[in-house]
Design a protein that fits this description.
about 180 residues; mainly alpha; globular
Length: about 180
């Protein structure tokens, strides 16, 4: 009986239009805000745990680092949730887990790296050429690319080990929710 229901749900989900899938992917405001707040706190705690494990959190920029990871988690949640819900609609539990896991990973790292790059670029902006010039565009692009690379090399490790546990637990929680999302 369960297999027949699953097969029927798959057949129905194939005929859902792209617009309907997008519309169904948007969660309510409460899910977005509370989820973003919780995800941000988890990412901040992950960075703190990583710093404590590596050097006892002995850094002059502890509050800035924690704020960066908090803001990255907060800004990444809405995009990750919408993308994850879009990819997970009408799928099996394993596929839903993988969709949420991938979307949360990519969006969180991308948002935090982007914020790091903006901060990094603002420091070097005083030595850059005039805004809008070709030289400025090169400097902006390569400074930002260098900042993202530096974050990936040095900042990514702050997500371990606590961030990975939070990622798995959150992905499992989202995957276990009812497969047909409603607003």
């Amino acid at each position: 009986m369960i297999d027949a229901e699953l097969a029927q749900r798959r057949r129905r989900s194939r005929f859902v239009s792209f617009g309907q899938r997008i519309h169904a992917s948007f969660p309510g405001k409460r899910d977005i805000f509370l989820g973003a707040l919780l995800w941000a706190v988890l990412m901040c705690m992950s960075a703190l745990a990583g710093l404590l494990l590596r050097n006892g959190a002995q850094t002059a920029n502890l509050s800035a680092i924690l704020l960066l990871f908090f803001a990255g988690g907060f800004l990444s949640w809405p995009a990750a949730l919408v993308l994850g819900r879009f990819c997970a609609q009408g799928r099996d539990i394993e596929t839903r887990f993988a969709a949420y896991f991938l979307c949360l990973t990519v969006c969180t790292i991308a948002a935090t790296a982007l914020l790091f790059a903006l901060d990094y670029r603002s420091f070097y902006a005083r030595w850059h050429g005039p805004v809008g010039s070709r030289l400025w565009l090169y400097q902006f692009a390569f400074t930002s690319a260098g900042a993202v690379y530096q974050f990936l090399v040095m900042g990514l490790r702050l997500y371990l080990p606590l961030g990975f546990v939070a990622l798995v637990a959150t992905s499992m929680r989202l995957a276990w929710q009812h497969p047909i999302q409603q607003r």
